[in-house]
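re: ur msg from earlier - yeah i can do the flavin mononucleotide complex, just paste it... oh wait u already did. ok heres what im feeding in:
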Amino acid sequence: MKKAAKIRPFWYSDIWLFPKLITIITTLDEQGRVNAAPYSHIMQYDVMAKNPRMIVGFRQDSHTFKNICATGEFVVNCPSADHLDDMMETARFYPEGVNELEHTGLTAIPSLKVKPPTIKECPQIAECTVDEIIRLPKSSGIVIGNIEALVFDEELIDMPREARIRKMNLPIGLGDESRMDYFHAVNYAITQHRLGETPDGFKGGEVKLGMTWSDDALKTLMTIPPGVRQMVTEQTEQFAQEHNDDKVTLGRFQQLAEEAGMGADFFDRFREKKAG
Ligand SMILES: Cc1cc2nc3c(=O)[nH]c(=O)nc-3n(C[C@H](O)[C@H](O)[C@H](O)COP(=O)(O)O)c2cc1C
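and the outut:
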């Protein structure tokens, strides 16, 4: 039996489990004083390279949000799991103007493109300027940030993915208990699941079926290279209709493939031609 839970404030951390990225955002106030605090309400916004942007959500009276509104710049630092205690220390409600990093083992170093500092111990960093600020009434301040630079420890950039995941050792945030105790996943088991779609695989999603297809016929259709899948679909449906079939079966599909010389050999040849 499923049951709807009550939606309380901070539902995203209270009841809904939202495994999240842990970041420490560094900013400067108008007087140039450093501020640092953890933020996990963060996600890609514009995924393309022309105008790459992230979206970050803040309490509107937080020092970080106020600094971003005042200076237009911030740095997103991703600490490794080795620095979870330092990260937690930066979450304390220190008075305005206090540099939380000085109460941790973390080191501020200059950023490449913006004035707020980078945290040296963080393997992955995004330097951002403000694109847009949205103040939700009686709720979060949403900042859409232009990514001026994505910065990494140099050796990480060309490292194979699994080695890079292990080396970065980023913790996963798993919410908190009434803002008192925070839960994180560390040293997680990494599993790999093969989808194996080719770069033009999205064309498969553009295929329109005009008839019902049996499961095995549909599975076989999915093995046809995406670039010609629509054409093969139409020809097969036309062939099935010519035989007064009310649905496309694997038998009819195979019959057409053989009659049209489109057996396995045909598609192998096609694949070779494309690759070459
Ligand atoms: C792991 C973690 C994630 C957090 N994520 C957010 C967040 O996404 N948005 C937010 O407003 N506060 C978040 N907080 C709470 C702020 O870090 C906290 O209110 C902090 O004192 C704000 O500091 P500031 O006023 O210097 O910006 C988070 C705290 C922790 C420990």
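cool cool. Residues 96 and 213 are 65 Å apart (CA to CA). ping me if u need the other ligands too
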